[in-house]
Amino acid sequence: MNPTPIENPESAIRNPQSEIGYEPRIVVFACNWCSYAGADFAGVGRMQYPPNVRLIRVMCSGRVNPGFIFKAFEAGADGVLVSGCHPGDCHYAFGNLRARENVEMTKQLLHLLGIEPERFRLEWFTAAEGARFAQVIKEFVEDVKKVGKSPYRTTADGQRMDSELTDDAHCPCVNSLPIR
User: Fold this and answer.
1) What are the angstrom distances between the C-alpha of 167 and each of 51, 75, 152, 170?
2) According to the model, what pLDDT value does residue 151 have?
């Protein structure tokens, strides 16, 4: 396997985030009724999107607790995307509106923690928007690549924090986060 040449070695030294082959870890919380079905449609239609994305199916985007998002970052995610039904199309009437409120509150808290806004996003999809799902994922991965690894990806001594997910008894539905 031949190493990838570095076009500007000085910038790679000054900016350690630009590691060769760096692929961000992305967690997507997808609503069961629209977003997850859109992701499935993208897969069935063989629409390509980065393989470093892990989908977590939730019944409704409004049920994505800010703690789930913080836990994903703590576990090593470089970016988190919450996706749900378009406003007005929620199977639970107002779940996506609650998701919007939760996301706005979470963005403020992430800002206080020093996490860049490019690392967190809310998107709406229908089950028929597989191509759009794939495109949004590609764009999100590129946005996260630009800001580099999450400051919370490792501990101070360089140890990965991934293993903490399986030890968390307070948040059972996040225990299955497939970040490795």
Assistant:
1) 26, 11, 18, 9
2) 84
CA distance 155 to 131: 37
pLDDT of residue 19: 56
Query: What pLDDT does 42 receive?
Result: 94
pLDDT at 159: 58
Cα–Cα distance, 173 to 119 (Å, whole number): 22
Cα 84 from chain centre = 13
Distance (Å, rounded) from C-alpha 6 to C-alpha 3?
A: 9
Distance (Å, rounded) from C-alpha 46 to C-alpha 179? 23
- Is 50 strand, coil or helix? coil
Calpha distance 17→52 (Å, rounded): 17
Beta bridge partners of 27: 54, 80
Sequence ranges of the domains in the chain: 23-174
% helix, strand, coil for the chain, step of 5? 40, 15, 45
Q: Is the pTM of this model over 0.90?
A: no
Token pair belonging to 176: 């299955």
Rounded Cα–Cα distance for residues 89 and 93 (Å) = 7
Specify the CATH number for 23-174; select among 1.10.1040, 1.10.3470, 3.40.50, 2.120.10: 3.40.50
Q: Under a CB-based contact definition with an 8 Å cutoff, are residues 77 and 61 in contact?
A: no
How is residue 172 written in tokens? 């059972």
